[in-house]
Amino acid sequence: MSLLSLKSVTKRFGGLTAVNGLSFDLVAGETVGLLGPNGSGKTTALNMISGYLPVSDGSVALGGDTISGLSPDRIAHKGVARTFQLVRALPSLSVGENVLAALAFRRNPLWGRDAEVRIETLLAQVGLAGRARQPADSLTYIDLKRMELARALATEPSLLLLDEWLAGLNPTELRAGIDLITSLRESGMTILLVEHVMDAVRALCSRCIVMNTGTKIADGPTADVLSDPEVVRAYLGVEDA
Ligand SMILES: Nc1ncnc2c1ncn2[C@@H]1O[C@H](COP(=O)(O)OP(=O)(O)OP(=O)(O)O)[C@@H](O)[C@H]1O
What we know:
The chain has helices at 42-49, 72-77, 95-104, 112-125, 141-154, 171-186, 198-204, 222-226, 229-240; strands at 2-13, 16-27, 31-35, 57-62, 65-66, 80-82, 159-163, 190-194, 207-212, 215-221. By secondary structure, the protein is α/β, with parallel strands linked by helices.
């Protein structure tokens, strides 16, 4: 059975249809890339799955239960976590306190010593072992991204939505970032990632969905999709393909 199911999901902003009748399913354990040119509706799709934007039409289901229409916190409690294109941290708090905020507001909150132990485990998982007391505003860009991922993982999601999590990293950081997402994938996490870094898409995604002007134009195994003439024309250009 599908973990995530979008059926004819549409988002209209006034006269603009940002996402137009988008349908796809994710099976548990898949890592799928959501690709497309700037403005094609990828982030809007993530925003509807995670409840940050209501759908105009259509429905989103998680594990067979309809989640469209629920608030973002209810959807998070049901198992959807996400990262944002622009990292959302609490800069005046420490790294550990940032993760604690996620632990405290999840479906089964953790506090005190249990939370401390869990924070250390989560920070180690994302490559920030021993950094709980460091102020969040002193982190480098990649470490901020790692912390944001720890916050997402703190909610114990069944589905992780990554919005350009690898954008803006230098080649060494990119390698480390790809390795980190690979380890999540290997742990069985279901991941939907919006990404423009094609090396990362090739390394991480078994399957890709491509959008153009709000509409799905391709969906299939990564190698097939990335050589699809319509995808090359609309998004990749000959060089990238
Ligand atoms: N809150 C909003 N109000 C009005 N228009 C919006 C809003 N959010 C997105 N849009 C528009 O919807 C379209 C799709 O935007 P979206 O951010 O989903 O694209 P994207 O594929 O994620 O692009 P990028 O790769 O640049 O992040 C764009 O035309 C955008 O300007």
